Amino acid sequence: MKYLKYILAILAILVIGFFLLGFIKTELSYECEVLVDKPLAESWAVSQDEEKMSDWLMGFQKIEHVSGTPGEVGAISDVYFITDGEEVTIRETITQIVPNESVSMLFTSDFMNMDYTLKMTSIDGKTKIKSSTICEGNGMVSKSIIELMGNTIKAQ
Fold it and tell me: Which UniProt keywords apply (predicted)?
């Protein structure tokens, strides 16, 4: 009986610690930068071409427009991915777009929301692509999981 109390106490501490992670750190933010050996106009065109999204978005399957004009502020689309053998749908809303310069989007799913910005800059005939992402879970469990999986999310 004494060991059972210790085991239950340890489990309780772990569960409380798990939920405290999501309570203390409510969002995950990260940036990524890459230099592409292509001109800015070509890099921008590839990033906006739905036919080429599977070339640079891991697991991308398709995109279905829900409302608004595709490629313009306010456009809403469902984006389908295969992740670990399962189909995942994320709702994308374009919140800002400056052609050949930047696009900002809000991605929503049952698990989390992501505020995403992609910026492109021309440097000596090449393109510097920089992305900034802020992720926030849609509940205490998802907030805690995001905190624990932070490095995995950043690696994607």
Answer: Membrane, Transmembrane, Transmembrane helix
